[in-house]
Amino acid sequence: MRVDSWIWSVRLTKTRALAAAACRAGHVRVNGERVKPAQALRPGDEVRVREEGYERVVVVQKLIRKRVGATVAADCLIDNSPPRPPRELVATAGERDRGAGRPTKRERRDLDQLRGH
User: Fold this and answer.
1) pTM listed for this prediction
2) d(CA 54, CA 47)
């Protein structure tokens, strides 16, 4: 079973194309190693999917080929993810007043630093 297909089937990503893109970008790891979208997956493998500053850690229990409902998808994996940080602690991008024009060079640097670039 392909990694991208399984990630999509158990609802870790919205589309299979997004799952494949995450694999190509290095946001998906199986048993600690970066994988390509067509990597074979087996029951017992640990899959880590990074998304927007948060990492989902799941263990494969069952392989399924088609996208299923959330209750059935929960039976196909064991979720070992740490709890999400509270929204107050998550850094938000700087907001500008409407009509304030383009950000200055200093503001762009601050935004890049905030985003981790």
Assistant:
1) 0.71
2) 14
The CATH classification of domain 3-79, taken from the options 3.30.590.20, 3.10.290.10, 3.40.50.620, 1.10.150.130: 3.10.290.10
Residue 4: count other Cβ atoms within 10 Å of its Cβ. Answer: 26
Q: Residue 16 corresponds to which amino acid? A: R
68/116 Cα distance (integer angstroms) = 35
The closest alpha carbon to 116, from 56, 57, 52, belongs to 52
At 25 the three-state DSSP class reads: coil
45-89: pLDDT as tens digits: 999 999 887 899 999 999 998 998 999 999 999 999 888 877 666
Per-residue pLDDT tens over the stretch 17-36: 999 999 999 999 999 999 99
